[in-house]
Amino acid sequence: MEESRGNQLPGERFCPMEDELVLLYLKPMLNGQKVPRRGRVVFDCDLYGHQEPWEIWETYKTRRPNDLRLNKDLYFFTQHKKMGLTDSHTPNSWKWHVEGR
Questions:
Q1: 83: closest CA among 94, 93, 96, 67?
Q2: How many CA atoms lie within 13 A of 46 on its CB side?
Q3: Is residue 12 situated within a structural domain?
Q4: Which of 35, 40, 31 is nearest to 63 (CA)?
Q5: Per-residue buried b or exposed e for 23-49, using 16+ beta carbons within 10 Å of the residue's own CB
Q6: In the prediction, which pLDDT does 69 show?
Q7: Total count of domains within the chain
Q8: Does residue 1 belong to any structural domain of this protein?
Q9: What is the rounded CA–CA span in Å between residue 42 and residue 63?
Q10: Do the strands 88-89 and 96-97 form a parallel or antiparallel pair, or are they unpaired?
Q11: Is 47 a domain residue?
Q12: What is the model's pLDDT at position 98?
């Protein structure tokens, strides 16, 4: 039998509902409590950094091979970074920016 990856049993999937994400993962993280399976099903990643979206996907998809067959979502904790009205972020193939109000 194939050995489980990341303390996950073969056939086990991580497909939480929205309220489960908030109550079981986000709330404990915000309260400084231990988050279950952090680093195995929910990852810490600087989504505002210099990595392209597909690079982030490639980095983390191999950590959840069983789940991603059915559910193509990855879950992250990231630090929100407030940007000024003139700031922009323009990686090679995608762009987002803040415009004046």
A1: 96
A2: 5
A3: no
A4: 40
A5: ebbeeeeeeeeebeeeeebbbebeeee
A6: 58
A7: 1
A8: no
A9: 10
A10: antiparallel
A11: yes
A12: 54
Per-residue pLDDT of the chain (101 residues; tens, 9 = 90+): 333 445 556 666 777 888 988 999 999 999 999 998 888 888 999 988 888 988 988 888 877 766 655 567 888 999 887 766 655 555 555 555 555 54
Give CA–CA dist 75/45, Å, rounded. Answer: 10
Is the C-alpha dihedral spanning 58, 61, 62, 63 positive or negative? positive
What is the span of the domain harbouring residue 66? 18-80
Nearest to 5 by CA among 30, 34, 29, 37: 37
Residue 22 inside a domain? The answer is yes
Residue of 63, 3, 69 lying closest to 37 (CA atoms): 63
Nearest to 77 by CA among 20, 33, 38: 38
The first and second tokens of residue 100, run together, are 């004046």
Give the C-alpha separation, 30 to 32, whole Å: 6
